[in-house]
């Protein structure tokens, strides 16, 4: 079966976040998809099957299936428009995170995603110990969000991933601060799913954009994830939904050989 790797939220290869994309004629077993994700060893491998007028989309990390993923959705939309439905300008997906779309607008791929609200949360000594810094604020939704005092602190952070794994709360840990060149910067850590740092995390911005909308009173922002690879996201706050855009670069096209398929 065909297997693609796309660098999402990237102007060129070796930037952004690499996602695996498998376009299937029929579903594989959950166990096989999980094994493929482990074998690929990327933060997410996306699996998609044509259903009615759109596609069913699922995302697997090396540590298990996840309910929302931005960069692998962008990557899948890019692959479908480039190689499967070449005349399409919009792809509709049905996912565990609800109905999502990817629309091509020039050299950007715009996604319509849910807006995730968070609530203030209590800072603990364990959090300070794991991060190695004292956050200014803490918020919680599905994940934990830590506001840090500066862009430099976000850049230089060296958290203890084993200690983050022990947090009883939050699937992932996000750190963010007001940016200099960009509206805000961030980093994303998922050690509970065997991904210490996600290079560019789209789903994180479903929580960060509503947060920064309240802080900056802006509906349109440009954000930068300041991981080693780095990536840029163009964001619009629309209340219950957000628009999230980025570029994509094709890294590889390959074939996977498995007996089940």
Topology (elements, then pairings):
Elements (H helix, E strand, L loop, with lengths): L1 E7 L8 E8 L5 H11 L4 E7 L2 E8 L2 E3 L4 H14 L5 E6 L2 E8 L2 E7 L4 E2 L4 H7 L5 E4 L3 E4 L3 H6 L4 H5 L7 E6 L5 E7 L4 E3 L6 H13 L3 E6 L5 E8 L2 E6 L1 E8 L6
Report on this structure:
Belongs to the PhzF family. One of its GO terms (cellular component) is cytoplasm. With 261 residues, this protein is an alpha+beta fold. It folds into 2 domains: 2-111 and 247-255, Diaminopimelate Epimerase, Chain A, domain 1 (Roll); 119-239, Diaminopimelate Epimerase, Chain A, domain 1. 21% of the residues lie in helices and 41% in strands. The chain has 6 helices and 18 strands. It has helices at residues 30-40, 71-84, 125-131, 151-156, 161-165, 204-216; strands at residues 2-8, 17-24, 45-51, 54-61, 64-66, 90-95, 98-105, 108-114, 119-120, 137-140, 144-147, 173-178, 184-190, 195-197, 220-225, 231-238, 241-246, 248-255. It has an 18-stranded mixed sheet that branches. A hairpin with a 2-residue loop joins strand 7 and strand 8.
Rg value: 18 Å
Largest sheet: 18 strands, mixed
Sequence of secondary-structure elements: EEHEEEHEEEEHEEHHEEEHEEEE
Q: What is the helix tally?
A: 6
The name of the CATH topology of the largest domain is: Diaminopimelate Epimerase, Chain A, domain 1
- Overall morphology: globular
Family: Belongs to the PhzF family.
Active site: 44
Organism: Clostridium polyendosporum
GO molecular function, one term: isomerase activity
